[in-house]
Amino acid sequence: MKAFYARLTPAIVRSMLAVAVGLSPTSVRAQELSIDSCGCAPAYRVECQTVYEEREIKCYRPVTETNYEEREVTRSVPVFETKRMERRYSVLRPVRETSVREERYTVQRPVYETRYRDASYDVVRNVTETQMREERYTVQRPVCETSERQETYLVQRPVTETVQQQQVRTVMRPVTTYQTQVVDQGGYVDQVSVTPGSKSWPSLRWLPGQQTIDPLTGQVQTVRPGLSWVTTETPPQQQVQRVYRPNPVSVQTPVTGYVPQQVTECVPVNVTRMVTEQQVRRVPVQVVRMVNEERVRQVPVQVCRQVVERVERRIPEQVCRMVSEERVRKVPVTTCRMVREERVEPYDVQVCRMVEKVEKVSVPTTTTRLEEYTVTQRVPRTVMVRRPIEPACDVCG
């Protein structure tokens, strides 16, 4: 490959470039003379450009043609004719004969009789009586009692003491400040809680007659005595419980601090400590207790007593009795017997026969041939073009 490039001369290179760009060798030579006369060579770049050329191409397309040809066709045509024929058949003809025969049968004849049936019955009648009965019941009555009890509690009391302290350089100077503290001074309080009574299941009881007011009309109406569903309810119960009630109180408590001081002296120092003291106080306590009391009351009670009474009753009834009787009757009897007869019946029959018929028919024939037509196409072709980049000097432009 290196030996091939070494044998290339400038003339061969110029010819190859002219063929690649699309210039003739004469124009290339003229450009070389202009370059030699000026003494400077311009700069070029080679670009690829697509050129479309129009070409005519011959093509063929199929064309279909239909031709009609007359032919003679022979076909069979049906021809229908009517023919008279006879048909023989046998028929069974009914012959009826009537005769009389005796028939004995039994008849049930009704005989009616009158009887009396005992339909006596018992009537139960309610007799209502009013009686007084004694009813004892228990009532819970609350009784309040007041008593006192002792409570022991602890109290913190501050105690301040003075102490002499020998300080060489630093002396602590007392500074007293007050700090607010919240102290609980509450106590126990009695609290009464009420437990509602329980309701029992409805039971059937006898209620006496009473008068009520109608809420809609406002008139007094009387309710008759009788049995009714009654729901009983026990009385509520009261209980006393001890509950602690807090009482927060703000208390100013003195707090002593010390500030260092650079002196040499004996300084008294106040020291505060808390001393616990036990105190006793009496607190009144109110106790509620329930006392049972038995009471007696007279309750009217209505008693229903049943009295049985006999009612006599006789009901007449009509009884039907069937009596058998034998009777004779004449019954006509019809007997049917079949007699065979021969009959002749004419009928028409259609007979079909085939007749040949000649007709002329047009038969289509399809023929395909190729038709020539011309199409113009654009064929692309790539061309190398040399374009100057910039002028080499002022003389060349």
From TrEMBL:
Pfam families: YTV. Keywords: Signal. It comes from the Bacteria. Residues 1-30 form the signal peptide. This is YTV protein.
